[in-house]
Amino acid sequence: DERCILQYQITLYGDDERLVMARDITRLHRLEQMRRDFVANVSHELRTPLTVLSGYLETYGDLAEQLPPRLGKGIQQMQEQTQRMQNLVNDLLLLSRLEIDQSGKDHQPLSLGPLLQSVREDALALSDQRHTITIALDSKARLLGSEQEMRSAISNLAFNAVRYTPPGSHITLRWKDNQAGGACIDVEDNGEGIDPVHIPRLTERFYRVDKGRSTTTGGTGLGLAIVKHVLLRHDAQLLIESHPGKGALFRCTFSASRLS
Ligand code: ADP
């Protein structure tokens, strides 16, 4: 395809002078597209072998009591690592789908009450009931969006709140109107918080504050990148507010045009 992609930058000087610069970004765009397709294809191809592996490991896991202890422990570790790889591949695939497919064809009016309730139940299961999670419904508006994508974004935020706060911490899931006529979903915790120096980079793929700790929490390092992309597809903004020792607030803000 012979099309060329140009990026324009217009700088204003005073009232009647402008500097227009055009940059040919065709090559950059194509490389970016190749990277996305590559990640999507590799993730897709890895799914089947991982399913076969985890199937066999589950069968062997059922026989663990009849096996020598070292072998049983090895199988358990293989199961855990295979699960980690499956989570990673699923998140990579989801992220590339969010990047490649730009359309919002499955957008419909969503009631946040049932959605937050079901995320709460999943998060409580992950926490093994060691956290308290409350829901605050302070808006009657319905959100025009994709249920699957919004569930995935809110779950990522709620699961992080469980993973990165000590047992006994409190988490709030809130849907509320804002002064600009829009509404926001807040996921707030009263855990250890995040040093503000890390905040601008948190939504980068694989960026983690504490690498060592994060690998044991079951996260893939892609959670907040997924949240960012889901919000982009809903014309929404993510605001992260936190200070060490003071908990964290993740706020997703939707404009009035996204509400019904
Ligand atoms: P992952 O959780 O898989 O490491 P994410 O992209 O979901 O990846 O999160 C990036 C990092 O942000 C985490 O590794 C963690 O250090 C930090 N983080 C996210 N949510 C919280 C939270 N509620 N409290 C403290 N730190 C958090």
UniProtKB/TrEMBL annotation:
Residues 41-258 form the Histidine kinase domain. It is an enzyme of class 2 (transferase). It catalyses: ATP + protein L-histidine = ADP + protein N-phospho-L-histidine. Its main location: membrane. It comes from the Bacteria. It is found in: Cell membrane. The keyword Zinc does not apply. The keyword Metal-binding does not apply. One of its GO terms (molecular function) is kinase activity. Keywords: ATP-binding, Cell membrane, Kinase, Membrane, Nucleotide-binding, Phosphate transport, Phosphoprotein, Transferase, Transmembrane, Transmembrane helix, Transport, Two-component regulatory system. Its EC number is 2.7.13.3. Member of the two-component regulatory system PhoR/PhoB involved in the phosphate regulon genes expression. PhoR may function as a membrane-associated protein kinase that phosphorylates PhoB in response to environmental signals. This is Phosphate regulon sensor protein PhoR. It comes from Halomonas casei. The chain holds residues 169 to 428 of 428 of the full protein.
